[in-house]
Amino acid sequence: MARVIATPVGRRDIQRGMEFDGVIFDLDGTLVDTLEDIADAMDRVLAREGAPGHPYARYRYLIGRGIRNLVVEALPAELRSAERVDRCYARMLEDYGAHLLVKTHVYEGVPELLLALRAGGVPLAIHSNKADQPTRAIVAALLDPDAFVLVAGARPDAPLKPDPTVALRIAARFGLPPARVAYVGDSSVDMQTATAAGMIAVGAAWGFRTREELVENGARAVIDAPADLLALRGS
Fold first, then answer.
1. Domain holding 147: CATH number?
2. Could you read off the pLDDT of 113-154 as tens digits, one per residue?
3. Which of 16, 28, 179, 203 has the fewest CB atoms within 10 Å, counting from its CB?
């Protein structure tokens, strides 16, 4: 059952009628499970540098702030020279770009959720810290790009999350005030983005991070399955 956060330490059963008219989704850990493809690519890059890889459980906490930050955090501290980071970043973009869809898959219930929201006339968008090209490639392969008003990956002309700039641009594209937009994501970065933008922060408990992290970073609700978003709205 989906649950609404009552306090940082207590919860109560979900209440219908949380008011929002548009939805922005994070991508990784929210709509699609990309963890293993990202981790495998990063481990291959690390191996070329003679550096150790990391278990998938560790990558759950390295993913979410963009690929360059992932490269920095994955490298041992003593190997984080600017030259090496630049080299590994370029290699990571190349390797991951060639292996986007080996293990990546859509979470169960996501296609049905998107169909139901669209049927209800709810505008949708994707906002990711993943580079724009792989973001769009994954959406094109696994989701319906036409379902979204905007698919926004990381670009040089816009700050990364948790800066709210892109989220606010999306709300403007929706023609909605930020307070009428739900921002659904699986990490602290997403909850911080939603809060900074004045949106409704909804945590996806099926993703890469913990329920506790979502609550501590401003989630107004934490849902356990995609369909719970409909119940949250009272759809």
1. 3.40.50.1000
2. 999 999 999 999 999 999 999 999 999 999 999 999 999 999
3. 16
